Structure prediction request, 219 residues.
Amino acid sequence: EDQVTQSPEALRLQEGESSSLNCSYTVSGLRGLFWYRQDPGKGPEFLFTLYSAGEEKEKERLKATLTKKESFLHITAPKPEDSATYLCAVPNDYKLSFGAGTTVTVRA
Amino acid sequence: KAGVTQTPRYLIKTRGQQVTLSCSPISGHRSVSWYQQTPGQGLQFLFEYFSETQRNKGNFPGRFSGRQFSNSRSEMNVSTLELGDSALYLCASSWGNNEQFFGPGTRLTVL
Prediction:
């Protein structure tokens, strides 16, 4: 069965303090890895899709990278508005298997 | 382009009742998936429909059911509600087998 593990569970950053979130996965035949951002009480917002090892995607202060066993979401010079829970997921059999998420809090 | 819409946004029910939640996908999307999100279990897959056919079902009891209509709109139903069914129910749509785009969710509270 697919397994997706995210670390750390929570991350508290000072504004401008860059950091990385980890998503490790165990899946037979990776068909993509997705990153989402979720604000409290709202649905997840799609951020990136990565399909192959070595691939990188960027959006504003976020950059996602993929290796054969894990993905990283780098947050560069974060701002308070980057505070959210970041989820990664892998698809298989028409469903997404999600990690538990990393809750990022950025203090001004 | 309008996003995924879900109605109602909030529901309060009592144990033993049943509930129906509705989801309208992004125009052109033919796949609709449902997920349950709770603080303890995270996001758990319920079922997925494509062109009115259920292609996969998660590990939930038979009290949870769904369907999809010819216009791709979907409904899910939970019968004989239990306290543990309190959760955020999320609907997501996609073209068929790739990125899924989520709606705002329906917050169900069972008293």
In short: The mean pLDDT of chain A is 95. The longest strand of chain A covers residues 84-92. Chain A is about 0% helix and 60% strand.
